Amino acid sequence: RKEVEQDPGPFNVPEGATVAFNCTYSNSASQSFFWYRQDCRKEPKLLMSVYSSGNEDGRFTAQLNRASQYISLLIRDSKLSDSATYLCVVRRAGAGNNRKLIWGLGTSLAVNP
Amino acid sequence: DVKVTQSSRYLVKRTGEKVFLECVQDMDHENMFWYRQDPGLGLRLIYFSYDVKMKEKGDIPEGYSVSREKKERFSLILESASTNQTSMYLCASSNELGQYFGPGTRLTVT
Q: What is the overall mean pLDDT for chain A?
């Protein structure tokens, strides 16, 4: 079993839709959580960190459920420009200052006109 | 804005050649990383460095070495390139907020 697992998708949604991705992690001592976005043939870019209380950045909401060991990303009012692969990332306990992260394989999102 | 640059976007090398991939960051980050990314396998950590002249093996260090002589520069070396090292190579540096990537080098070994 992979340490970080994501549904690869693809998720095909119309513009304006709300879409949610989940990501599960197996190491209960995992300490920090992130969502990255990667466009085709580009480098990953940090989308947002995920805090225990949940956090929101515009149309994006991230949540953490430590009991069930998953994190989620909700995108409201989807735009064509949201089409990308979304990578779930977990930092192991004790790694310190993002020295070593565990990456999911990503969930592909296509927003259609 | 954090800026991470990599020496080449595309590189074609022959089997057995020694290959140098250079990465430079301008944010005075202590931590730097080299990954490779392959379809279906995701991002895999090759080596990382948390200080000048310090390095640690990642998950797939075989066939690679690294050099960190200056804080801003982290080099990945393929001592003798092989076809199974054909991949996208991504360099990153990090602070407490996250990792920041360069644009990647697509290396083809023929």
A: 91
